[in-house]
Amino acid sequence: GNSVTQMEGPVTLSEEAFLTINCTYTATGYPSLFWYVQYPGEGLQLLLKATKADDKGSNKGFEATYRKETTSFHLEKGSVQVSDSAVYFCALSDGYGGSQGNLIFGKGTKLSVKP
Amino acid sequence: DAGVIQSPRHEVTEMGQEVTLRCKPISGHNSLFWYRQTMMRGLELLIYFNNNVPIDDSGMPEDRFSAKMPNASFSTLKIQPSEPRDSAVYFCASSLDSQFNEKLFFGSGTQLSVL
Fold it and tell me: How many residue contacts between A and B have a Cβ separation below 8 Å?
C-alpha cells in the first residue's frame, strides 16, 4: 500500500545551519506531496506542497522538490532559526485529484535548533 | 476566524468510561477530519466527513469508536467504553473541500489519557 518514510529524529542543529529532512514515499499513481509542521502544543500546519513531478514547493525559506525518479520529497532550509524548532511531517495524498481525505503521514521528525 | 476549535484540551478518565471529544470546524469549510496521534503509530486518519456525511471511516479502530457530524459547525468523536490503549492526542481538522488539494487546518488537539 501507499506509505511515507521519514528520517528518524530528533535532529539537533545550531542556528544558521543547513537543514535536510529526508522523505521517501511509495505510491501508485501520481500522488500529491506535502510537508506539515507542528509547533509545540499546536496542531499541524501546512508548510508546503507539490502536486506533480519536478514541482518545487516553498514557504518560509523551506523548499522541497517532488522527485518521481527517486520517489523523494526531501525538505531543505539553508539557514535554520530557533523558531523553526518543531516536528515536521511528510505526507502524501493518494485520492483522486489529490483528495486530502486519503492523506497519509510519515511518523514525523523532531527538529531542535540551538542558539 | 478562530480556527478549528477542539474541546477539551485534556481529558483524563478511567478505563470503561465514555469519552466524548468535540470539534468546531472553520466556518465555511465543507470537510472535517478526525486524526489520532501516538508515538508508536504516528498520525492516523480515523474518519472524514464531506458536507456532514461520513465518507471514509475505515480508520476507526473498532466499534467502540463512533463519530457524528449533526451540522456543519459541530462534530463529536465518542469512545465507549474507553481503554488505556486509546490514550493519544486526537486532532480534528477541516478544509474547504476534500477533493481539490485544499490544505487542512488542524485544531490544537485533545490529549486523552485513559487510566
Answer: 67
Tens digit of each residue's pLDDT (9 = 90 or more) over B66-75? 999 999 999 9
Q: Is the pLDDT of residue B101 over 60?
A: no
- Give the pLDDT confidence score for residue A99 in this predicted structure: 47
How far apart are the C-alpha atoms of B16 and B22, rounded to whole Å? 19
Cα distance from N-terminal residue to C-terminal residue, chain B: 36
What number of other Cβ atoms are within 10 A of residue A37's Cβ? Answer: 21
Cell readout for A87 is 516536528
B112 to chain A, minimum CA–CA distance in Å? 14
Mutate to test the interface with A, among B9, B57, B106, B108 (most CBs of A within 10 A): B106
CB contact under 8 A, A46 and B104: yes
**B59, closest residue in chain A (CA to CA):** A102
Q: What is the pLDDT of residues A29-76, one digit of tens each?
A: 778 899 999 998 888 999 999 988 999 999 999 999 999 999 999 999
What pLDDT, on the 0 to 100 scale, is given for residue B20?
98
Residue type, A111: L
What residues of chain A lie within 8 A of the CB of B103, using their CB?
46, 49, 100
